[in-house]
Specification:
alpha+beta; 216 residues; single chain
Length: 216
């Protein structure tokens, strides 16, 4: 028996073009992801929120433990798919896709982070396109939501670029200070990038893990 026999998500891959791949990380890729998290920026304009606080070692540990935690908590009605983002063969960040009661709501939410040294290369946009194509075109999502702090202009630009519409704000506490988070929403009917070069592998073996009714 192999790991994929009991955890078929291990085989899931989403590719966009020749350079970008989203993969459910094995232990080796998870170690690479932890290394990328060491290089998250935590200066006065903190794009990543409180999870990125602490020393590089603490951030790396936090990424590994969070991945293990979300795998252990997975159910078909409440799940969080944590993709390692590999660009030109190197793990550069993480792209999340999550849902609650997906069989009923058909709504997903996305979140992501990207190692600082890889900013400004279009990778953030590409990884969002890849995960939205997976959601809308392969697991039958009807809507997707996202959010970003107002002092995270890079994430705000990505959401606007790929076609989300603004959906209000949340006021939250971050590091003991008041901060505004903008919400974004997109419906499948508004998904503007149909027919993209997204190729999905390994989904047939794990469709039931996303909730009843996920179709090809």
């Amino acid at each position: 028996m192999s790991l994929s026999d009991v955890w078929p998500l291990a085989n899931l891959r989403v590719r966009l073009g020749e350079h970008l791949q989203l993969e459910v990380p094995d232990e080796s890729a998870l170690a690479e992801l932890a290394g990328a998290a060491e290089r998250i920026y935590t200066g006065p304009d903190p794009f990543s929120g409180q999870w990125a606080d602490g020393t590089p070692q603490e951030r790396a540990e936090r990424v590994v433990l969070y991945n293990w935690k979300r795998r252990a908590e997975w159910t078909s009605s409440s799940w969080c798919l944590l993709f390692a983002v590999r660009y030109e063969g190197i793990v550069v960040g993480c792209q999340d896709l999550a849902a609650d009661d997906f069989a009923v709501t058909r709504e997903v939410r996305t979140a992501s982070w990207l190692s600082l040294r890889h900013h400004g290369r279009g990778i953030g946009t590409a990884m969002r396109i890849a995960v939205l194509a997976f959601a809308f075109e392969h697991v039958n999502a009807l809507s997707a939501t996202s959010g970003a702090y107002i002092d995270n202009p890079a994430s705000l630009r990505v959401s606007a670029k790929v076609g989300y519409r603004e959906d209000g704000v949340n006021v939250v506490a971050r590091r003991g200070e008041r901060v505004v988070e903008r919400r974004f929403r997109m419906d499948r009917a508004d998904w503007p990038i149909r027919g993209s070069e997204v190729v999905v592998e390994g989904l047939d073996g794990c469709r039931d893990w996303f909730g009843a009714g996920v179709t090809s």
